[in-house]
Amino acid sequence: MKIEDFIRGKARRYKGGGFFSVRRKLEDIDSGLMGDYIKDNRQGLFLKNIRREFSELQDVPKSKMLFFDIETCGVDPHKDPIISIAMAHMYGKSDVTVQCLFARDYSEEKTILQYFFHLLPHY
Predict the structure, then answer these.
(1) Close Cβ partners of 110 (under 8 Å, ≥ 6 residues apart)
(2) 22 - beta bridge partners?
(3) In the predicted structure, residue 65 carries a pLDDT above the cut 90
């Protein structure tokens, strides 16, 4: 079974390689009680607390902030390939977009990294 068969997203091409991408607005994600709490309180949770914790972000507009998490497929991060990169980006008054890049096999690790590094200068 392919990831495309059970996750709504799309296969993408970048620099000659491929990967699978899923993008959602935070309010479109069914994420249970914790997710609902975050959605209901996102304005205060995000900017005020983040800027209080990281003073170097005081003057950074929220449209330039990108939060991300990288997952590997094993226990040794120096040897095991990256299989996904999840990102959250704030825009508008308190809107959040979540995007996940998935390597459908180990050969796509390079492509998701290249795409991710392409996005970074925008933030």
Answers:
(1) 17
(2) 100
(3) no
